[in-house]
Amino acid sequence: MMTTEVIIQQLRGLITRIRLIVFFQTAADCMLFYSFFRLLMSGATVQIFTTDFDRNTAMLLIFMLAMIDLCFSGIRRNYKRSGFNLINQLSGDLDQDEAAVVTKFDRMK
């Protein structure tokens, strides 16, 4: 069984990693929407990120971006699940700083 200090330290690390994953997922979402918009508004060739693609290659690129986004979502869900398992291991009363970390984790997306 882990001590409360170790659990809180692990939660702080998870909060940092979740923030990083949310940043990368937001970037992947923006690239995905941009690429999809460019595909919809184009003719035979699609210019995405200053590179010309034919429509089939552009759709493959959009599919790969969607898979990357899905992977980030799975990683974030796994981090959340790990954090909730850590929170369930906490026992006893928490001081103000520890309760703030738990509350901050609960508010994360």
Descriptive account of the structure:
- Helices cover 77% and strands 7% of the residues.
- It is mainly alpha-helical and 109 residues long.
- The chain has a two-stranded antiparallel sheet.
- β1 and β2 form a beta hairpin.
- It is rod-shaped and about 65 Å long.
- The two termini are 28 Å apart.
- Structure annotation, total helices: 3
Proportion of residues in β-strands: 5-15%
Helix and strand composition category: mainly alpha
Q: Give the C-alpha Rg.
A: 20 Å
Strand order of the largest sheet: 1-2
Percent of residues in helices: over 70%
Distance between the termini: 28 Å
Largest sheet, described in full?
2 strands, antiparallel
| pLDDT < 50 runs, ≥5 residues | none
Shape: rod-shaped
Q: Provide the residue-averaged pLDDT.
A: 91
Number of strands: 2
